[in-house]
Amino acid sequence: MLGNTAKTPAVAATGEYTGGFIGATYGSANVTIMNSTSLGNVNGSEEVGGLVGMLYQSTMYINGSLTSGNISSANNLTTMSNGGFLALA
């Protein structure tokens, strides 16, 4: 669980599944993000999200949180997913 957390510097990665707080989750993870703020740009190669890059076979609960900044991927293909909160689920 992330709670009452703030991140202001930019995140830049060369791989896929890049997020402001979490890159990727796998399996039966239960992710909770509450009252948290991710400010700054998030850049990666693909599947880039403001809070989470990829959520795979997991559950996520977001409450009272926000993200602000540019979300961009190096591979701007139409098959890639990018999102303000979550890129790929």
Strand order of the largest sheet: 1-6-11
Which series of helices and strands comes N to C? Answer: EEEEEEEEEEEEEEE
Residues in helix, %: under 10%
Please compute the radius of gyration using only Cα atoms. Answer: 12 Å
Low-pLDDT residue intervals, each spanning 5 or more residues: none
Topology of this structure?
Blueprint: E1 2-3, E2 6-7, E3 11-12, E4 16-19, E5 22-25, E6 30-34, E7 37-39, E8 42-44, E9 46-49, E10 52-55, E11 59-63, E12 66-68, E13 71-73, E14 82-83, E15 86-88
Parallel strand pairs: 1-6, 2-7, 3-8, 4-9, 5-10, 6-11, 7-12, 8-13, 9-14, 10-15
Task: Supply database-style keywords.
mainly beta; 89 residues; globular; 3-stranded parallel sheet; single chain
Task: Give a brief description.
With 89 residues, the protein is mainly β.
Structure description:
The strands form five sheets. The chain has a three-stranded parallel β-sheet with strand order 1-6-11, with no helix packed on it. A three-stranded parallel β-sheet has the order 2-7-12, with no helix packed on it. The radius of gyration is 12 Å and the shape is globular. It has one domain (2-88). It has strands at 2-3, 6-7, 11-12, 16-19, 22-25, 30-34, 37-39, 42-44, 46-49, 52-55, 59-63, 66-68, 71-73, 82-83, 86-88. The chain is mainly beta.
